[in-house]
Specification:
Radius of gyration: 19 Å
Distance between the termini: 52 Å
Shape: elongated
Number of strands: 10
Structural class: mainly beta
Oligomer: single chain
C-alpha cells in the first residue's frame, strides 16, 4: 500500500492507503473500506461586458494584485447559477441575470487543488459597483488594455470572447 496526501478516513478515522500509484487520488480506508475520491472543486464566474469592455476585479488575497473575471466557489448544496450570482454580487456590489453558460474549463494553475470553472455571460440588473470580499478594485477593460491576469483560464475565456467579436 502507498501513503497518500490524506492520512485518515473522514468517516471512521482509519488509515487511508492507495493500492497502486494510479489510485493515489482515490485512497481507500483499510478499516471501513471508504474510498476517498479527490474530485475537483467547482468554481463559477460571471462575464459582464459593456461597450466592448469586460469587467475585471483586482485580487487582494490569493494571487494578490492580479486581475480576474469575478469568481468564486460553489458551496455545498448550492445551485451553480445561484452561486455565480451570489459570488458576483459579493465581490462587485452588482446583481446580475445570467444569460447562458459561455465556457467550462479545468483549472490546473493551483497544483494543490484542481478546479472546474463555469463562466456565464451575465447582464447587470441593479446595484452600485463597489469592490468587496476578494477584490480591491473593479473596472472595465478593453482587449488591448488588459491588466495582468491571475488565472490562465480567464485568459482563454477572454481570447474566446475576442475571437467571437464580443470583446
Amino acid at each position: 500500500m502507498i501513503p497518500t496526501r490524506y492520512s485518515y478516513c473522514p468517516k471512521c478515522g482509519g488509515k487511508l492507503l492507495a493500492r497502486t500509484m494510479a489510485d493515489q487520488d482515490k485512497p481507500q480506508c483499510e478499516s471501513c473500506g471508504f474510498v476517498f475520491y479527490q474530485n475537483p472543486i467547482v468554481g463559477v464566474a460571471a462575464i459582464v461586458l459593456c461597450d466592448g469592455k469586460i469587467l475585471l476585479g483586482k485580487r487582494n488575497a490569493s494571487y494578490q494584485g492580479l486581475w480576474c473575471i469575478p469568481c468564486g466557489y460553489v458551496e455545498w448544496k448550492e445551485d451553480v447559477e445561484e452561486a455565480c450570482k451570489r459570488e458576483f454580487e459579493e465581490e462587485t456590489g452588482l446583481a446580475v441575470d445570467l444569460i447562458r453558460v459561455y465556457a467550462v474549463h479545468s483549472n490546473f494553475h493551483n497544483p494543490k487543488q484542481h478546479t472546474v470553472g463555469i463562466w456565464y455571460l451575465a447582464q447587470v440588473k441593479e446595484g452600485q459597483m463597489a469592490p468587496a470580499d476578494d477584490l480591491d478594485e473593479i473596472d472595465f477593460f478593453g482587449y488591448d488594455e488588459l491588466p495582468s491576469l491571475a488565472f490562465p483560464t480567464d485568459h482563454k475565456v477572454i481570447e474566446q470572447l475576442a475571437r467571437e467579436g464580443l470583446l
